[in-house]
Amino acid sequence: MSPSLDILPGELLYDIVSHFDEDNFQRSLLALSQAIPRSPVPTYLLFEKIRLKHADQVFQLYRRLRHAPEDASRVREFSFESWTVDADIFVNLMALLPSLTYLKIYIGPNFAPEHLEEIFQKPRQHLRFLSMRFRPYVQRATYYQFLKGAYFDSTLLALSSWPAPSMPVLSIVQDPLDPAIAPTNFAQPLVFFRLDPLSTLAVAPLADNLKHFRLRVPGRQVARHLHTALHPFPSTEFLDLSTSNVGSQDVAGLLGHLRALQVLVLDGCPIVSQRIDVQLDAGDPFLQWAELGELMALAGVARATEREKKVRAWTEAYYVQHNEEDTSKKGKKTKRGRRGLATATISLRAPSPERAMQPSRDIPPNRVPKRHQRIRVLPPAPALCSLATSFPGVLTPETYEAVKEEFERGWATGIARLQAIRFRHLTSWRNGVSRVVRFAEKGSPEWEEEEEYGEEGLVGLVDVKEESEFMLNVAGDDAAEGSARTGFSCPLLCIAGSKRDAAHVEGCGHRMGWDFYKDEI
Fold first, then answer.
1. What is the mean pLDDT of the chain?
2. Does the N-terminal or the C-terminal CB of the chain have fewer CB atoms within 10 Å?
3. Which of 61, 53, 60, 64 has its CA nearest to residue 24?
């Protein structure tokens, strides 16, 4: 008897099927089941991973699963990659798939905010990967979206309302407007009108476990909305803000507040001057990269200085309020006497605003600084491991080496300044001149206390007790690739942009993004 696939056991067929190419998985599995119809081919795998590329496939799948709930319950990964679809049918299809762990959607002009609201109204507890790619552009001018206020801000709020899902990967991307896609001679619809919901998302339960976040809103200033709230994105290690309007100061703010951040991708962002000719005329074409490196190394200093100012303002307001209360309790009366003749009985000035800082009297007593006590916040060491961006000009190997050298030089300068500041704090701490505190670690009792009270007094800060805490954590191998030759590792720098080519640095943020999101946009 000649060998035949018909005699293979189901376990072996399953192992064979697991090696099928992912892009042609469904087609290959279906062909195998038709070739050996009497064999136990695991056809149920057709429904575990579904990838649709045409609008008509949505209705066909909906009609199939509507009458087969057992097949619908098997669907774990769903990907829809078409810009046109009947959005109402798509919403009905999503309602049949409650157990998704992977969801990827292309959102074209047929979608309205109400459709996504309905899809994400109920939390999807099993979801581990969510990717939404927006392309709302139209071929003919229409002002329906503007007049109705049809923006997808509500989608961010819907995701923010989910109760503590464990979703480590989130991607929200708006494609840049390309003349090859749609006309540019009239105002195209916006995806997001207000960016405030991003601040809500930053501290939502969803953000607690979010490790990889890609947010691209072309030309919009999204960065400041990601770090204004307390403890934003506490677990995010990978952040991609490509095509957004992110400047160097925004980078410093992100690194200062997103303390778990290790990989930052900023393709097409103006973190350095986009005009190389200006730098060439100045005689130092890559000085801006040195300035960027130094700024990033000192991001923790800016954050510590900001917190010190808040502590001083809070302490001053606290004791002023304390004195006012003591005075009112004593019932001190004003002296009798004649008022000045020139004193006006009315004022044309606007009433003065209330004091900006209103200290709470409910915080624990040990979180109230002593009067006239000098408080110093120890600036944290940088945690960034990789910066991936695009070079604003023609990139050659020689250019990359020159940029890398300047970036590392700036980083080394910043690290040296950081260490000097920490040594000054050490000296004042030894001499009893200052009380030195550091930021609390995530999950610690002090961290949780700050969640409750906010940045009141010394809430969220921990006293430094050992001299070793003032020392930077030395990387060790100064000769390693990417080192700033200072004993503290410089982030890996890649300036090749988003396109896949040979110019990318091994292990850079671009390559990581391709692996996380399974695309190359």
1. 86
2. N
3. 53
β-strands 461-463, 435-439 pairing: antiparallel
Residue 74 C-alpha from the chain's centroid = 32
Q: What is the DSSP string of 48-76?
A: TEEEE-STHHHHHHHHHHHT-HHHHTT--
Q: Are 107 and 132 in contact (CB under 8 A)?
A: yes
Cross-strand partners of 171: 131, 214
Question: 481: helix, coil or strand?
Answer: coil
Q: Whole-angstrom Cα distance, residue 285 to residue 277?
A: 8
**Partners of 169 in beta bridges:** 129, 212
CA angle 209, 489, 385 (to 5 degrees): 25
Helices (H) and strands (E) in the chain, counts: 17, 13
Nearest-10 Cα torsion for 492, 495, 497, 498: -10
**Gap between the Cα atoms of 205 and 280, Å rounded:** 48
CB 402, CB 286: distance < 8 Å: yes
Q: H-helix or E-strand containing 271?
A: none
CA–CA dist 414, 290 (Å, integer): 10
What residue ranges in 74-185 does DSSP mark as E strands?
A: 77-80, 102-107, 129-134, 169-174
Helix (H, G, I), strand (E, B) or coil at 489: strand
What confidence tier does 346 reach under pLDDT thresholds 50, 70, 90?
low
Task: Calculate mean pLDDT across residues 371-387.
Answer: 95
Q: Using CA atoms, how far apart are residues 350 and 348, in angstroms rounded to an integer?
A: 7
Residues 223, 249 contacting (CB under 8 angstroms): no
The predicted model scores a pTM of: 0.87
DSSP string, 90-114: HHHHHHT-TT-SEEEEEE-TT--HH
Q: What are phi and psi of 254, to 5 degrees?
A: -65, -45
Per the structure block, which two tokens stand in for 324? 């006012």
- pLDDT, position 347: 54
Q: Is the pLDDT of residue 480 over 50?
A: no
Report helix, strand or coil for 170.
strand
Start-to-end CA distance of the chain, whole Å, equals 52
Report how far residue 519's alpha carbon sits from residue 23's, in angstroms, rounded to the nearest whole number. 12
Q: Identify whether the C-beta of residue 225 lies closer than 8 Å to the C-beta of residue 198.
A: yes
Cα–Cα distance list, 130 to 108, 152, 173, 344, 517 (Å): 17, 16, 11, 64, 9
What pLDDT shows up at residue 144?
Answer: 63
Residues pairing with 40 in the sheet: none
d(CA 417, CA 383): 16
